[in-house]
Amino acid sequence: xxxxxxxxxxxxxxxxxxxxxxxxxxxxxxxxxxxxxxxxxxxxxxxxxxxxxxxxxxxxxxxxxxxxxxxxxxxxxxxxxxxxxxxxxxxxxxxxxxxxxxxxxxxxxxxxxxxxxxxxxxxxxxxxxxxxxxxxxxxxxxxxxxxxxxxxxxxxxxxxxxxxxxxxxxxxxxxxxxxxxxxxxxxxxxxxxxxxxxxxxxxxxxxxxxxxxxxxxxxxxxxxxxxxxxxxxxxxxxxxxxxxxxxxxxxxxxxxxxxxxxxxxxxxxxxxxxxxxxxxxxxxxx
Length: 286
What we know:
The chain is mostly beta strands. It has one domain (about 5-275): Jelly Rolls (Sandwich). It is built from 2 helices and 25 strands. The strands form 5 sheets. The protein has a 9-stranded antiparallel beta sheet with strand order 1-20-17-22-15-14-13-24-25, with no helix packed on it. It has a 7-stranded antiparallel beta sheet with strand order 2-3-4-11-6-9-12.
């Protein structure tokens, strides 16, 4: 029977850092640590007064800003952007972005994904990359009202002009908020013909406490905890004792989800209303 012992759980608060030129580097998930074939996750701290010059090389890089230090910036595509909580960049192979922290330490969640095969991309061009923040991204709420999410990388999400947010299936990722009592369905993910080994699936908690459930076993998780779910292991995440904010990752974005619990309100998600009183628009997840 599956259990929480099948998961890899890493506390970023106690993970041993490596000193690097720009500050500190903590490895939270990797093929060696988690057996996450298509995903490596770092927590980078760019120390005050230093800069990190990121060159994507042959891989995809998603960088999410975890805090809001004074005067921190991201340079991308000949523009300088404020590095604030919830902002970041998706870099496709060949792109680059410098991160500067002149006024205080800058914490980054840095995800690296190898280039997916054509079958995973399903006709998408693979790029270009982009800068994002909470003002440029669209919020989504589930039918129960208990969960709210904001993707920073997801090929099926449409912007207000009808274009896709992301032009690659290398990675699906974004913020998730659970109201008190909020929970995911009990579910599992498996591979597809294009990605038979399945996606590397990770939760990284930021604020609040959660409870991960696998069959009859469970484990409470505190802020700063990364959980890796191997393909095929059923699981559920609940907010525990209040609200919960976390970050969710799937790489590559080619997987089949099976829902194992009864969900009376269904599994639909809706874009946040463009203005008060506007009709709800369902997110087409295909």
